[in-house]
């Protein structure tokens, strides 16, 4: 009897341990992460009141006084062969980021979906993804946790935000990758309203990426990369050219470049600069001067203060336009804008 009881006890322990190990393994595959952000913003040489407060002509971080960013919740499942990502956003930044999602439906049903896709690891070197995913072009991203600066660049703001389609990520070698995709028209994220499709490609080599997007005659070519100059000094680079295509009689577009030097002084503090030149082709309308071939040079000095999972981001930004895009405190046109932002980003 004692031997039987001992055998049952040992068997129970083994089964329980095995089940606990399986349960732990399953828990590791499913994850929930995200962030929240809020900020304070003020102009030094322009008004901070009115229905249309003066701000740089870029996305996000453009409201006066204390303002909200967004709440971001990302649920993901990572299996050996398959998985999914459901990335939901709520708040002003999220609404701006998903501006066309659900726009063609009366209830705007999907305007909280930032990304929603499933993937299949076909082999060790090939992954297929289908659904809605953020763009592969550009240096900056929608989530503030993925950017060093809190405000965004002109190149980010007027490139695509998201795509819906299918893509193949192919590892050509240890340091070389290729991505090919077929997608709905740019930013048509819920369904295809035009029966036309965009095509994308990305070639990566040692952390440097050359991107191409062809969208119904229009095209954008983009280079994104960076270098570790030293253990503490990093230099990011972004350059892009966009044209709406030879078939469009207006021949609109833009081109520009930005550099992102960043220096880490300690585990707590990093200081960085974004210096960007952005040039419109004809009256593209991004800068907002309503003048052909307008340009802007924007310099943003940013600090990142890390307190566990909280990052405090103070930044001073100077925008200088070729035409009177901004107004001064007397509501007269001017070519420059100086502003300050203090943001808080908590990630989990």
Structure write-up:
The strands form two sheets. The chain has a 16-stranded antiparallel β-barrel. The model is unreliable at 1-16 (pLDDT under 50). The chain has helices spanning 2-29, 92-97, 154-157; strands at residues 30-43, 65-78, 82-90, 113-121, 126-134, 162-171, 176-183, 198-205, 208-215, 218-228, 233-243, 253-264, 269-281, 295-307, 310-321, 326-327, 333-334, 336-347. With 348 residues, it is mainly beta. It has a single domain, classed as Porin, CATH 2.40.160.10. The chain has three helices and 18 strands. This is Porin.
Main features:
single chain, 348 residues, mainly beta, Porin, two-stranded antiparallel ribbon, 3 helices, 18 strands, 11% helix, globular, disordered N terminus
List the helices and strands and how they pair.
Layout: H1 2-29, E1 30-43, E2 65-78, E3 82-90, H2 92-97, E4 113-121, E5 126-134, H3 154-157, E6 162-171, E7 176-183, E8 198-205, E9 208-215, E10 218-228, E11 233-243, E12 253-264, E13 269-281, E14 295-307, E15 310-321, E16 326-327, E17 333-334, E18 336-347
Antiparallel strand pairs: 1-2, 1-18, 2-3, 3-4, 4-5, 5-6, 6-7, 7-8, 8-9, 9-10, 10-11, 11-12, 12-13, 13-14, 14-15, 15-18, 16-17
Keywords: Signal
Signal peptide: 1-21
Protein name: Porin
Gist of the model:
The protein is 11% helix and 51% strand. The chain has 348 residues and is mostly beta strands.
């Amino acid at each position: 009897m004692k031997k039987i009881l001992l055998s049952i006890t040992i068997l129970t322990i083994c089964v329980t341990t095995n089940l606990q190990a399986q349960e732990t393994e399953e828990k590791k595959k499913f994850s929930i992460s995200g962030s929240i952000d809020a900020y304070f913003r003020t102009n030094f040489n322009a008004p901070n009141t009115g229905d249309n407060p003066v701000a740089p002509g870029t996305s996000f971080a453009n409201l006066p006084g204390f303002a909200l960013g967004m709440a971001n919740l990302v649920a993901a499942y990572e299996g050996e062969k398959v998985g999914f990502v459901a990335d939901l956003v709520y708040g002003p930044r999220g609404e701006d980021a998903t501006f066309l999602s659900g726009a063609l439906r009366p209830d705007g049903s999907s305007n909280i979906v930032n990304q929603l896709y499933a993937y299949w690891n076909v082999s060790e070197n090939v992954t297929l993804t289908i659904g809605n995913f953020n763009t592969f072009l550009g240096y900056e991203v929608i989530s503030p946790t993925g950017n060093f600066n809190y405000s965004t660049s002109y190149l980010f703001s007027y490139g695509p935000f998201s795509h819906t389609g299918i893509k193949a990520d192919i590892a050509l070698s240890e340091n070389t990758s290729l991505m090919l995709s077929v997608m709905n028209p740019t930013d048509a994220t819920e369904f295809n309203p035009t029966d036309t499709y965009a095509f994308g490609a990305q070639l990566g080599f040692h952390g440097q990426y050359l991107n191409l997007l062809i969208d119904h005659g229009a095209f954008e070519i983009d280079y994104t990369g960076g270098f570790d100059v030293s253990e503490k000094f990093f230099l990011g680079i972004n350059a892009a050219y966009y044209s709406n295509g030879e078939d469009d009689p207006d021949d609109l577009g833009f081109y520009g470049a930005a550099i992102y030097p960043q220096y880490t002084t300690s585990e707590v503090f990093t200081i960085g600069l974004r210096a960007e030149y952005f040039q419109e082709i004809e009256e593209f309308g991004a800068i907002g001067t309503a003048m052909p071939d307008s340009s802007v040079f924007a310099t943003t000095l940013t600090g990142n203060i890390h307190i566990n999972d909280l990052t405090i981001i103070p930044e001073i930004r100077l925008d200088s336009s070729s035409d009177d895009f901004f107004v001064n405190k007397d509501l007269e046109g001017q070519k420059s804008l100086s502003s300050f932002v203090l943001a808080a980003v908590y990630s989990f």
